Amino acid sequence: MIVAGQELRDHWLGGRALGLTLALSLLLSVVSYLVATNQALNYLEQRESVNLTLQVAVAVGALLALLAAADTISGERERGTLESLLVTPISRQQLVAGKLAAALSLWIGAFAVTVPYVWYLGRGIGVVSEALAAGLVVGTLVAVFLASLGVLISSVSRSNRVSLSVSLLLLLVLFAPTQFPTSAQQGWLGDFLLRVNPLTAGEHYIGKIVVDSHAWSHDASWLLSPVLGAAVFAAAAIAAARSISLHGGSRS
Amino acid sequence: MRRRLLLALVAVALALALVPVASAGEVVVGIDRTRVSTSLGRSFSFTTTVANRGTGPTGTLVAHLNILSLKPGLYVDPEDWSSDRTHYLHPIPPGGSRAVRWRVKAVNGGSLAAYVTVVPQSGAGTPATSRALRFDATSRKTLNSGGVLPIALGVPGGIALLALAVRVQRRRRGRRVRIRVV
């Protein structure tokens, strides 16, 4: 709790989180302006514009959480403050849990910024509450998964640069299936890759609810990998806290 | 023995061939309404009744919904309007009928028509078609770039102001700490 409070102050009062949230809001403003330039969108296009905005928000919000998490341990190590943190009377698991919670606050901030855009784009077609609820659930699962992954990488990285590079590379790999041609996505292997990847599965689920008006239970199987990814990686990040060393990397 | 079996099979085949089977021409498709007024984004449903006026049972029938624009310039993709456009109907006995309910969502504004065609699953014969259901979907301006401007400018502006306020506050605190130290 103490660690989370301190980290939250560092993120939000230090200005970094606000700067990143401002960048996200500018991106969402451009996206909303572009999709709203059509004077008479049809019903489906309006739903698709809500879906697009929500998916951008989930992807960027989760990216912000990942960036903040990738800096947690390796950043302290590089600034020479890890030693003093490790000797404080809190367990390493509490330290990691606090830092993880603070990293997730960037996703919460990103989601809060998204609300007015989704409200504007989705008003009149009865999709706002459902889209926001789906975005919050899926986005939180994806953010927990990515932030935990970032903390894990940060725990073992010798430098902050390595941690950030590896995290971003993994994020690109996770996003790669979205660029597959439609025919490749429809085969059993393409379908499997989309389902097993928490990012693509989560975004697919949001699309089904927002664009196709499916019930939450209809495509619930697509939520399996985001739920498992969030639970397994969060547990792994906290479990790996025991082996945090002052210098990072594998122990010799 | 084999010869008898073969003869029996031929006899059964002839008997089956002689049983009158209703052709698609004896199938009539009725519709419960011919006009609907709706608006963009709303759903409506209608029912068609596929009746067999022939003397023999029909085969399996395929009923298919189609939607078109009555005026040029409006692109209509029926898949967008109804997710369940094809129904496979079990054979209907002579004098019998089967009701099929169709659900349509208006995804464009304009004057449109929907009709249902019934074809035997064999693909042979003339399709039977219902009367057209004409529907006028009123469109509305859903979005405009001018309307989004207050949000597109206001949200980043608000966050920028907040960031500025936090920065000013931090500087003031820093100055106070320096004065105390001095």
Describe the protein.
The complex is a heterodimer of chains A (252) and B (182). Chain A is mostly helical. Chain A has helices at residues 2-12, 16-36, 43-70, 72-79, 82-86, 92-122, 128-156, 160-175, 182-186, 188-196, 198-210, 224-239. The model of chain A has no long low-confidence stretch (mean pLDDT 85). In chain B, strands 2, 4, 5, 7, 8 and 9 form a six-stranded mixed beta sheet that branches. Chain B has a three-stranded antiparallel beta sheet with strand order 1-3-6, with no helix packed on it. In chain B, β7 (110-120) and β8 form a beta hairpin. The model of chain B is unreliable at 14-21 (pLDDT under 50). Chains A and B meet through α2, α3 and α6 of A and α3 of B.
Gyration radius over CA of chain B: 33 Å
Largest pleated sheet of chain B = 6 strands, mixed
Please give the radius of gyration of chain A in angstroms. 19 Å
Order of helices and strands of chain B: HEEEEHEEEEEH
User: What are the segments of chain A in which pLDDT stays under 50 over at least 5 consecutive residues?
Assistant: none
Largest β-sheet summary of chain A: none
Largest interface: A-B, 35 and 32 residues
Percent strand of chain B equals 25-35%
Q: What percent strand of chain A?
A: under 5%
Distance between the termini of chain B: 122 Å
Determine the fraction of residues in helical runs of chain A and give it as a percent range: over 70%
Q: Which structural class should the secondary elements of chain B be placed in? A: alpha+beta
pLDDT averaged residue by residue of chain A: 85
Q: How many β-strand runs of chain A?
A: 0
Uncertain stretches of 5 or more adjacent residues of chain B = 14-21
Number of helices of chain B: 3
Distance between the termini of chain A: 33 Å
Shape of chain A: globular
Compute the number of helices of chain A: 12
